[in-house]
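Entry for the shared binder. Reason: the reviewer on the internal report wants the predicted structure included alongside the sequence.
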Amino acid sequence: MASTMRYINIISRCGAMYRTERLANTELGACHFPYILTLARNPGITQDTLAKMVYINKSNVTRALLYLEQHGFVERKQSETDRRVLLVYPTQKAMDILPEIRSILKDWNQYITEDISEEELSAFTSVLEKIAKKSARYASLSDTAGEGEAL
């Protein structure tokens, strides 16, 4: 029997392929979704907080934000209270593409769950939530991620 993580990874990689294909006409890739979604909900957060919320290490967040900034999706501004801190904001370009991103995520979720009954989906979601919370506890114990976004 294959491990749980193998199946989760397959779902994740196939979902990334779907998102990338659906965004082929934009400058965004699948890896950019969490940044835009999180920044739309939390404009003006620090890069460190963003890294914790999306469970991605700081160096990868820095690279992704540089790309998103160069392509006009985010802007970084120096904090008025602490000149050492950069705050990250979504631009209008990011906000304009947000409905498309949400639609793509909704379509993928509908596609992968269309053959599953409501009862099965409810039980599966409950188990996944427990696994995600346990994973988040580990991440909060390690110094690489932090508390993260509410699940």
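Summary line for the report: The first strand starts at residue 45 and ends at 46.
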